[in-house]
Amino acid sequence: MIEYRALTSAEFEQFWALDRYAFARQYHRGRYTPEVIAQLRGLFVHGELVAQLQIMPFRMQAGNGALSVGAIGSVATWPQHRRRGYAEQLLRAACTELREQGAVLALLYPFRHEFYHRLGWALAGERRLVQPTPGQLRAFQAEASTYVAVGPDQIEELDAIYRGALRGRYGPLVRDQNWWRVDVLRTWSGEPYHAFIWRDDQGRGRSYLIYRLERHEAGDRIVCRDIVALDPTARAQLFVFLARHADQIVVAEIPTPIDAPLNALLPTPVSTTVVPLFMQRVLDVTRLLTEYPFTATTTGHLTIQIADEWLPDNAGRYLIEWQQGKATVSRLGAGEADLACTSATLSQLLSRYLRPRTAVAFGLLAAPQRQALLLLEAALDGLPPFCADYW
């Protein structure tokens, strides 16, 4: 007998044993409060735990609104039970549960992209990892200001800067107090990060930096967890702060949105790596399109054919009617459609990782009706995706 269910607190040691076996990096045990243990799910075969994961409900920013999503983490299967389809069964059951809870997307960071791609997950976007030396950051000029070390007592101020700086992006989590305390201000091992707010000469917090110092044989480095600013001056002061570590580090690792032109601000370009964001999977096409915050001026209608082999309830032809950005979605019977794509491509269009015309150019979106393509392009106008969180 195969059973999917929540783990009990008495079964936590079984979860911990498999998590420790499967992952080189683990959360510290203190993170697993009764509330977190209640999020653990397992696939049991004749009473034996063979595979497991954690489901976490979130609100995720999407442009000028937010979506209900479910994050999935700690997906693992014991080696003696691998290659039997248990992980796929576990994920399917978790997606069904998340959909029933109202989530429109399932998000995860994959152990192997191709495995999840086969099940309909798609990359939500990319970010840059920029690695300047302190010397390369000396081009920024210091302003009259103060850097203030902060912690849990300043979460409200940190969150205001975070929300203001990332307004309009797709992908940032809507962080509650607990997420800030446990997952932003502390490392996986439970150690506190270093955190500073930059305040201008009027005492207003306009940017912040959360980071750790890493020891390396070739020289120490600062690894930024969050580097967030409300305006160019406030951003420059964070770079001034990093440059002041010239006698201590050889490089700083700075995550930025894919469209952030840091190299345009520097006299000499610095090393940059493109890093994948999370993958996402559509759980409910109708609800996703209804709740999605499209561009506020969008008015018109189109039909779109969605293919989805793994969650066939999503497959079908849909009519989307917009009135001043608000979408009304109806499911239609078989027939011709203005546009056609998979649910995976739909998720990438909505994240703005893919522009509709780019998707057509690369064969990911069929657009026999050009006016429908232009309407969708306008409806999805906005900034590329970004997310600084990991789970």
Topology:
Layout: E1 2-6, H1 12-22, H2 34-37, E2 40-45, E3 48-62, E4 65-77, H3 86-100, E5 105-108, H4 113-118, E6 122-123, E7 126-131, E8 145-149, H5 155-165, E9 170-173, H6 177-184, E10 194-200, E11 205-214, E12 221-229, H7 232-243, E13 251-257, H8 262-265, E14 271-276, E15 279-282, H9 285-291, E16 300-307, E17 316-323, E18 326-332, E19 339-342, H10 343-350, H11 356-361, H12 370-379
Parallel strand pairs: 4-5, 12-13, 16-19
Antiparallel strand pairs: 1-2, 2-3, 3-4, 3-9, 5-15, 6-15, 7-13, 7-14, 8-10, 10-11, 11-12, 16-17, 17-18
Summarize the structure.
With about 400 residues, this protein is of the alpha+beta class.
List keywords for this structure.
alpha+beta, Aminopeptidase, seven-stranded mixed beta sheet, 12 helices
